[in-house]
Amino acid sequence: MKRQFAFLGGEKNVLNSARLRKMLSSSSTSEAGNLNSYPIGWLSRSRGRSLLERVSVRRSLLPQADQKNAISFSSTGNYDEETDIYEIHRYVLEQFQNQAKEVPRLTKEINELKAKLESGQLRVVDVKLIQSMIDKLQKEIQTRISEEKRKEYLERVSPILEEWDLLREKEGPYFKFGEEKKFSPAKLTLIRSFIQVATEYSPLDLTLKPIQASGVCPYCRKPFENEDGKIVCYECGFYQDSLTYEAEFSDLPRINGSSNNNYVNRETFLKALCCYQGKQKVDFPAELWVKFDDYCAFNHIQKSGLNYERTRPIFKSIGYSGFFDDINLFLFMHPEIRKKLPDIGEYESLIIQDYDQFTQKYAEIKGDERDSALNAWYLLYILCRRRGIPCNRCDLKMPDTPAIRISNDNIARKVFEALGWTFEDTI
Fold first, then answer.
1. What distance in Å separates the CA atoms of residue 3 and residue 333, rounded to the nearest whole number?
2. Same domain, residue pair 47 and 164
3. Same domain assignment for residues 95 and 168
4. Domain-ending residue, one of 155, 188, 208
5. 324: Cβ–Cβ under 8 A, 6 or more apart, which residues?
6. What is the SS3 assignment for 423?
7. How many domains is the chain built from?
8. What digits encode the pLDDT tens for the residues 176-211?
């Protein structure tokens, strides 16, 4: 094909602008689509490349419309200072758009539950349970069709996005070749703050990416100060209790200096916090591995899809109920599974602080409703949700019976309200 070029003031081989538009129409962009905005001289051959070649190169560098809207991050995994919060923002907005699509399914569930109520062959406790489930589903439908949550989310993240834009503007769009990239603690703080808010409105399971260096703050990379078992970063204010997980849990009462049931409950909670993350020391019997593999093979169970919730019945069936607390660690150690362990180490001090406040208020208002403390794993779950801390219920030793969970929710809701916290039902 003979190439034609437009020359300023020339008469030969002038490329008609309409024809040029036609040639570019198959992949036009806002930069190249409106040719009238460019002087004729721009159409001439420059530096050995034709107009079409230069437009093609330019388009290869610019993000296309579908690429701008694409969500390239995973809602599960790690985040660091390179994470783009606008990717997360678009993901959350997409979740709001998809919520209405679930309304027909939820309505169908309500109708099925109502049909059970009309059968008239239920116990009083079952009627209460079903009615509670119906109320919860109706509340969920109202939440999905309402714009209040979306507006609330936008109000909360707007200040963070504004700070992010200012920070990126100062940072500039380019990075000089050969220049060492500097770590930005302010950037990471904004990302972390945004994720904490976004997690309350969408299914996110993002944790801070571990750093190679030890003894430094994960947020500002400055050396830690260890003061009487407290890890402190004076640069950014990071604070964390240094828990020694090698200590025997039976020794915690002496460490806590307590002699009543409170220390037993706290001991159980700290153990749950430890076991959830697989930080305990356990010697699994060799027979356990063999029986587990044989059971999975006999029942055609895909090991790669196992979590705590699905593994617990297997342990019960093969006679190892005594290792329920250690299932997360077992799944991590199994050579064919290698399930990633939950990591909420950076939030432990906040969780323990909330636990102490909760148990103090719980003792004041529980009355005769319950004679014992709530399930430690259940407590860990609701306290994590309160803070927007990533915590998957499928990885926790939660109560099996719905009636117990409803009872737990009822008393926990009262405690949360007394503390001025927002409670989310677990069932």
1. 65
2. no
3. yes
4. 208
5. 312, 315, 397
6. coil
7. 4
8. 555 556 667 778 888 888 888 888 888 777 777 766
Nearest Cα residue to 328 out of 284, 267, 386, 295: 284
The answer as to whether 424 is a domain residue is no
Contact 346, 241 (CB under 8 A): no
Provide the residue range defining the domain that includes 300: 278-333
Same domain, yes or no: 312 and 356: no
Same-domain pairing of 148 and 43: no
Q: Are residues 389 and 254 in the same domain?
A: yes
Question: In terms of domains, do 164 and 81 share one?
Answer: yes
**Tokens 């995973």 found at:** 74
Whole-number Å distance between alpha carbons of 381 and 391:
7
pLDDT tier, 20 (very low <50, low <70, confident <90, very high otherwise): very low
User: How far apart (Å, rounded) are the C-alpha atoms in residues 85 and 162?
Assistant: 12
The DSSP annotation for 177-240 comes to TTPPPPP-HHHHHHHHHHHHHHTTTS--EEEEPPPS-SSB-TTT-PBPEEETTEEE-TTT--EE
Residue 78: CB partners within 8 Å, gap ≥ 6? Answer: 206, 207, 208, 209, 210
Cα distance between residue 343 and residue 3, in whole Å: 61
Sheet holding 225-227, edge to edge: 225-227, 230-232, 239-241
Q: Is residue 5 part of a domain?
A: no
Residue 46 lies in a domain: yes
Least-confidence region, from 120-124, 244-248, 386-390:
244-248
Q: Are residues 282 and 263 in the same domain?
A: no
Above pLDDT 90, what percent of the chain?
Answer: 21
301 and 318 fall within a common domain: yes
Question: What CA–CA distance (Å, rounded) separates 48 from 75?
Answer: 46
Judge whether residue 355 has pLDDT over 50: yes
Q: What is the pLDDT of residue 315?
A: 94
Amino acid at 213: A
